[in-house]
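Quick one, C-alpha cells below. Sequence please?
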C-alpha cells in the first residue's frame, strides 16, 4: 500500500476543488435564461415613448448599434465637434446666422410661408445638413445615386396639424404649410424636442434636423429603415431614431409644443 505524500495530497485537494468549481460554473451557465438547456428566454422590453437613453439603447441589436455608432463617429470627424450641449447650441446659432445671409436664402426670423421659395428651403436644409452632419448625408446620397434632398411645402393628410409632414422615399421633405402660418416669438415660444425656439426660422431649422435623421437612416441604412425592430416602432421614432436625433441634433423626445397657451 502506498501512502500519498503531503504534497501529492494537497495537489489532489486543489484539483478536486477546481473541478467542483468548474462544475458549479457550468451548472450556473445552464440555468441562465437563454442557456441552451433553459426553456425560458425573457422577452426584450417593448420600446415606449419617454424611455431613458440607457434603456432604449439596450433595445438596439448589437450589429445595428455598431453601425449607428460608426456613423456618429464619421459625422463627428466631418463636423469636427462632438455632441456636447455648448457646441450644439453654437451650431444652431450658426445655422440661423447663415440662413439670414443672402447666400443662405436671406431668411427672415418671422418668415411668411406663402412667400418662401423652394430654393430658400433647399438652402436652409443644406445649412442644417452641413453644420450638423458635416456633409455626410449629401455624400452618401451622391455615392448611392439616390435623388437629392428636396424640401417642399405640403400637407400630410394623416397629420395636418404637425409641424412636419415627413420624408418620402424619394428624399422629398414636406413641411405642413398651414402650421407655419402661426407665429413663434419670444412671447409665444415653442419647445421643439427640448429646444426652446423663439422664432419660426429657428423652429423650422429644428424641424428639418428631425427629418434629416429619417433621411440619414433611409439613405445610409436602407435595411434598418425598412425592417429594424429598433427603428420602426412609434412610426419610425424607435430607439435608433431617438439615439441619432439626440447625438446629432441634441433633440430629446420628439414632442413639440407651445410653452404658453396663446393662440
Ligand atoms: Zn419623424
Amino acid at each position: 500500500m502506498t501512502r500519498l505524500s503531503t504534497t501529492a495530497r494537497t495537489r489532489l485537494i486543489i484539483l478536486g476543488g477546481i473541478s467542483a468549481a468548474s462544475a458549479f460554473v457550468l451548472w450556473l451557465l445552464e440555468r441562465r435564461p437563454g442557456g441552451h438547456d433553459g426553456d425560458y428566454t425573457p422577452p426584450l422590453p417593448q420600446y415606449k415613448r419617454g424611455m431613458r437613453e440607457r434603456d432604449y439603447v439596450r433595445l438596439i441589436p448589437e450589429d445595428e448599434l455598431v453601425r449607428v455608432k460608426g456613423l456618429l463617429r464619421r459625422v463627428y470627424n466631418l463636423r469636427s465637434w462632438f455632441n456636447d450641449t455648448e457646441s450644439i447650441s453654437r451650431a444652431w446659432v450658426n445655422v440661423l446666422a447663415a440662413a439670414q445671409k443672402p447666400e443662405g436664402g436671406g431668411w427672415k426670423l418671422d418668415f411668411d410661408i406663402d412667400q418662401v421659395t423652394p430654393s430658400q428651403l433647399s438652402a436652409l436644409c443644406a445649412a442644417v445638413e452641413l453644420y450638423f452632419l458635416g456633409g455626410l448625408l449629401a455624400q452618401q446620397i451622391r455615392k448611392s445615386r439616390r435623388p437629392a434632398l428636396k424640401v417642399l411645402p405640403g400637407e400630410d393628410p394623416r397629420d395636418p396639424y404637425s409641424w412636419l409632414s415627413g420624408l418620402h422615399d424619394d428624399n422629398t421633405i414636406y413641411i405642413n404649410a398651414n402650421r407655419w402660418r402661426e407665429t413663434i416669438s419670444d412671447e409665444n415660444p415653442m419647445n421643439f424636442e427640448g429646444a426652446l425656439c423663439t422664432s419660426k426660422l429657428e423652429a423650422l431649422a429644428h424641424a428639418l434636423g428631425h427629418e434629416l435623421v429619417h433621411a440619414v437612416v433611409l439613405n445610409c441604412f436602407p435595411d434598418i429603415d425598412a425592417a429594424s425592430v429598433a427603428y420602426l416602432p412609434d412610426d419610425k421614432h424607435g430607439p435608433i431614431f431617438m439615439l441619432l436625433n439626440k447625438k446629432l441634433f441634441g433633440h430629446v423626445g420628439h414632442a413639440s409644443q407651445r410653452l404658453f397657451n396663446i393662440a
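Confidence is low (pLDDT under 50) at residues 32-36. Residues 53-258 form one domain.
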